[in-house]
Amino acid sequence: MFLPMLQVEPEHLRFGGGAAETAINPFVGLAILVAGILIIAGSRRTAIFAFLAVSLLIPTDQVAVIAGLHFPVIRILIVFGLIRMFREKLLSKMEIFSGGINGIDIALILLTVFTAINGVLLWRVTGQVVFQLGSMYSAFGLYFLMRFLIREEQDVRQVVRSFAYILGVLALLMVYERATGHNPAYSFLGGARAATYTVEIGQDQRIRAMGTFAHPILAGTFGAILFPLSLGMWWKFRRNRAIALIGIVSSLIIPITANSSTCLIGMFGGVIALCSWPLRKWMRPLRWGIAITLVALHLVMKAPVWHLISRIDLTGSSSSYHRYELVNQCILHFGDWFLIGTKNYADWDWSMYDLSNQYVAVADPSGLIPLLCLVAMIVFGFKYLGRARKAAEGDRQQELFIWAIGASLFANVVAFFGISYFDQTVVAWYALLAVISAVTLAARKAQTEPQVQNPWRSLQTPGDVTRFGENRAQV
Asked: Per-residue pLDDT tens for 358-368?
């Protein structure tokens, strides 16, 4: 009987892998220290920039190993963020979740908790308990910090400005890498994986740049999902158009230098969403039309409708078939993973250990409930943005900005079909969710505060910022 040859999952991808000893460059240590001081003692806008810049522009293989526990840069910065949160909570009674807890917050908390519980029940070893506690610390610490820092319009503007500067630096690094085949970030900083990532990563005889990220696809996706947000900055904040232009140009360069279909498709998804602006009042029938079309195609096609994933290829690679097979095998083996996940997904077909799909990466190892929570986060995001846009009717700039945030969310939804966020890309994802919550809160305040008919428009001068803060404190 013929048995297919299956590719064995590399050991370093399982929990318990990773760096065996501390690998932190002195320059990285200094950057962490400076960023930590700014996060604790600086203004909220300074803290936002410091956290985003350091967490996104330093590779995740810069890690401190303490008593066998791994602390990459993001986890170290979270410590400083927690100090700031507890200090301000004690001194000013400031809420961690501005505007109160919402559907996105609940869905993310449930996703993280059930992922941890199911992982422990599935593996039943001490190492998995440690792994899941670390994952919970990262998820809760990062998301709670983003929700705590990003509270109102000025914070949203600072997030978008910060992303633009970061995109500019990353684009320069990736252009150099694409031109020379040499990664300057990993070669200069070193790190646990520097020996592998310093040299070029190629596909089909073409170099794939990755900058400071853990993979070219993730680097390209980071640029792709922020293109709509950069364009929204151009529309909304006219005084910052030079900075917005840096973000727009850089977010176009980055996916190209990464040479990946996934990030290009994510960008096209964001562009399609932006171009759907004239149809904004017809989104409900449009969604139903798409759903009915997919069902009809599934009934008439010889292959399942998700086989269309294998037809999408913008760079001449064969990876699109792998993405299709990930979805296909996940659906075929629903009974194996739906309860608490499965250990054996790598045995289903060739390279099935490579969970290059965010939905499958949540479903296969963790079960149905975490997958539903991920979908709920996305649904709540679109729902809240829709309400915020309707509340902003009459202010075209604000409507366009909110629509651009929705387009960025949709770009993530599309990119999820080709990659899972296992590096610092998750920082941009959580920051976007926090931005959505802040925009929703501002829209709600605009409806409940008659003295400030549009708080977003009123924020033009420092005096206006103070008045808005005073109004906010009175509510």
From this structure: 999 999 999 99
